[in-house]
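Hi R.,

Here's the chain you asked about this morning:
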Amino acid sequence: MTDTAIATATDQEAEPRPRRKPLLVLALVVVVLGAVGYLGWQLRQEHAAAQARAGALEAARTYATDLSTYDFNSLDRNFAAVTANSHGQFAEQYRQISAGLTELIKQNRAVSQGSVLSAGIVESDQARAVVALFVDQQITNVNTPQPRIDRNRMQMTLVQVDDRWLIDDIKLL
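And here is the predicted structure, written out as tokens:
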């Protein structure tokens, strides 16, 4: 080899090679940030689902108490509370049933106090929830002046409408 060829070969060896380490570090940072972002999104989704379940359970407890509580002296107010928290076909059915029961309840001077003993989510997402409820009613009327206890078990379906849980269906179990 000539001196020029040796000098050229030495210069080429002396030139820095492209560094791959910074690219690997950058790729690793991107992967880690992506994983953290995804986990954060999942955590946020789980938090929203937990809040939806808690809201649905609280609403179901309130509505079950409203459904099972009435006084012949204030039926319009009792029925209006349930109707205001009902949705769709259930709301219409409830209006019809309550209109049919009004005279009977007044004639018998019936009073009922409902209390939710237990409630639990059967299934839920952020738009719909099904809740199982154990509800007792303490009922008095002209035929039964001593209170009697009716034990009701129900499955209430709720739907989210404009950030409110509303009764969509009730099945007695």
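One quick note: The chain has a mean pLDDT of 89.

Cheers,
M.
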